[in-house]
Amino acid sequence: MSLLFTPTEIRGLSLKNRIMMSPMGTTAAGADGKVTDWHLLHYGDRALGQVGLIMLEVHAVMEDGRDEGSLGLWSDEHVPMHRRLVDLLHAQGSKVGVQLWHAGRKTNVPGKAVSASGLSSGGRSSRALTIEEIEEVVRSFGAAAVRAAEAGFDAIELHAAHGYLLNDFLSSYTNRRTDRYGGTREKRYRLLQEVIEAVRSVWNGPLFVRVSANEYGPEGNGIEDSVFFAKRMKAQGVDLIDVSSGGVYPEKPKVYPGYQVPYAETIRAEAGIPTAAVGLVTTGLQAEEILRNGRADLVAVGRELLRDPFWPRRAAEQLGVRIEEPAPYRGFWFPDRAPAAAE
Fold first, then answer.
1. Considering its fold, how many domains does the chain have in total?
2. Which member of 51, 190, 303, 308 has the lowest number of beta carbons within 10 Å of its beta carbon?
3. Which residue range or ranges hold the NADH:flavin oxidoreductase/NADH oxidase N-terminal domain (predicted)?
């Protein structure tokens, strides 16, 4: 039996397989941040393809914390179309998560860049947040979590990676504050700690956090820091760490198939918390190896699912597994299952 296609459970949420669609920002929304018909088609294809957990792309928790074209949950007006999307994906057997986020200093909206310490990014300057503004950020994450529940989402993921606002506070390179939100690892963790507390106070479902396990710079966080933070997250009731890397320094790491998997493996072993492995996972055999060797609990697939919404079927064939096809396709995927009328 393939582990990739063995059902699993996270905080009472049952997944039909261990494939997670990695959150990938498409910037296909309008200025209002609402779900469009394009999103229904985009994510609906992956649900037809039998992805177990579809993690929607970044959703801004504040209008001033978005990118141009990003989705949002900063307003109650977002909920109805999000509920329509969630219901659509549920109808095809997929569970649905939403990634909550503040773009911070990396926003592409002119004049809106904020950060821990006023550093620039991509030639754009930012200003450091005040204590009062930090408190508003925390409240906004909590309010967005309430809207996520109203929309029917199954899981929430906090985006604390890739140099965005939560990562900006976590990083020993970008956080140069001297108040209670900067300095030691404990103080740099404070913003994420307060965000987790705010979300957990209104959300009882699975809670994930995406991290940059290695920032690939001499002054940035490394895997030891990430293990430290992961232990704190586990104590706060986080259920899974979605392990990515980079995005803080301008330089990009060398990439190759599975290049981030060792980070997921280390955090899982040393912090004792489930992880998702991501990063150029392209075949069913590769995904199965990750799970079989206890390197992660979910396999997050990104670009390969953009290329092929039915990647789970291809992975299943590589592993000698037959997965359930959408009923209208019956007899086309597996001719021996064709209903009599189609023969």
1. 1
2. 303
3. 4-319
Look up the domain containing 20 and give its range: 8-306
**Is 148 a member of any domain?**
yes
pLDDT tens-digit readout, 267-291? 999 999 999 999 999 999 999 999 9
**Domain membership flag for residue 339:** no
CATH code, 177: 3.20.20.70
Q: What is the 3-state secondary structure (H, E, C) of the chain?
A: CCCCCCCEEECCEEECCCEEECCCCCCCCCCCCCCCHHHHHHHHHHHHCCCCEEEEEEEECCHHHCCCCCEECCCHHHHHHHHHHHHHHHHCCCEEEEEEECCHHHCCCCCCCEECCCCCECCECCEECCHHHHHHHHHHHHHHHHHHHHHCCCEEEEEECCCCHHHHHHCCCCCCCCCCCCCCHHHHCHHHHHHHHHHHCCCCCCEEEEEECCCCCCCCCCHHHHHHHHHHHHHCCCCEEEEECCCCCCCCCCCCCCCCHHHHHHHHHHHCCCEEEECCCCCHHHHHHHHHCCCCCEEEECHHHHHCCCHHHHHHHHCCCCCCCCHHHCCCCCHHHCCHHHC
